[in-house]
Design goal:
- The chain is of the alpha+beta class.
- Helix content is about 25%, strand content about 35%.
- A hairpin with a 2-residue loop joins strand 9 and strand 10.
- It starts with a helix and ends in an 8-residue tail after the last helix.
Length: about 290
């Protein structure tokens, strides 16, 4: 990413920011992206869920918070901001969005699937950039306009109840989860520090480098689960074996970034079964990683 950023600065001088982090006009970024962020420490994270899509997998209608939650995270860096993101796209949207990103100097760091057998199939474009946060936001907003990603935020309704024993899930996974749009979500931190282009990726959850585990109730104590394990190379196959041994399908294995340290692999998974049974399988896989318990 370091070489790309150097080229980006040379080619796209308009992205260069002279302001210090405290001078970032976050209100203008909010207005440009058409939504309010969640803020954790110095990271502003903006959600772009594909609420326009009805995606089914093995008879389950996937809620946006389960597997369709695109996002962008802005973090002050080098007198401007770095941005990282994961955008959910249909196959026909990939090339138009990519063309706009490239024309604006935004990096594409990965394009891939997360799930198998989903209808319609969804793909995930990871992006990165550095410079003036307002100009970065404008460039990404214009690129997303090439897709049908909702660029206005619908009024929030009452969140659906989560019909699962969440206290038991917390106990098994080892961290406290939280409800989001009818989905019970966990972020499990790794013990090792993670950097990208020399910048610490903290907080790890908002920056997309925590292990993400999502439970969507499907009735009768069952849940559909998906998410991604964040792994070093030596952890990949032990986690694959642990997941498959517990009836959890591995659906993708790939990178999300270009210049992270340590080198990381992201493993996506899927199952729809008894939620407690699946949590125990996920815990067995977590035990193969350098992850934390709270």
């Amino acid at each position: 990413m370091r070489k790309t950023i150097s080229a980006l600065i040379g080619v796209s001088a308009s992205f260069i920011a002279s302001a210090h982090a405290q001078d970032v006009d976050w209100k203008k970024v909010d207005e440009t992206l058409g939504r309010k962020p969640s803020v954790a420490d110095d990271v502003h994270r903006y959600g772009f869920p594909r609420t326009d899509l009805t995606v089914t997998l093995d008879g389950v209608t996937i809620k946006p918070a389960l597997a369709l939650g695109g996002w962008l995270a802005f973090k002050p860096a080098h007198g401007g901001a770095m941005v990282m993101g994961d955008l959910v796209l249909l196959e026909t949207e990939i090339n138009p969005v990519m063309a706009k990103m490239i024309a604006s100097g935004i990096e594409i760091t990965a394009v891939h699937n997360h799930l198998l057998r989903a209808s319609p199939a969804t793909f995930y474009m990871h992006v990165a950039g550095h410079g003036d946060p307002v100009k970065l936001a404008s460039a990404i907003h214009d690129a997303l306009a090439e897709s049908k990603t909702p660029l206005t935020v619908a009024a929030a309704g009452n969140p659906p109840a989560i019909d699962l024993d969440t206290a038991k899930l917390d106990q098994i996974i080892g961290v406290k989860g939280q409800g989001n749009g009818g989905v019970y979500q966990f972020n499990v931190k790794r013990r090792d520090p993670i950097t990208e282009d020399g910048m610490p990726l903290t907080p790890v959850g908002p920056m997309g480098v925590a292990i993400a585990i999502n439970f969507q109730p499907t009735g009768g104590g069952k849940a559909a689960i998906t998410g991604d394990f964040v792994l070093t190379s030596d952890e990949v196959n032990p986690v694959i074996v642990a997941l498959r041994t517990h009836g959890i399908e591995v659906t993708a294995l790939h990178s999300h970034m270009l210049d992270e340290q340590p080198r990381l692999f992201f493993m996506h998974f899927w199952a729809n079964d008894d939620a407690i049974k699946l949590a125990e399988g996920l815990r067995a896989a977590l035990d193969k990683t350098a992850s934390t318990k709270s």
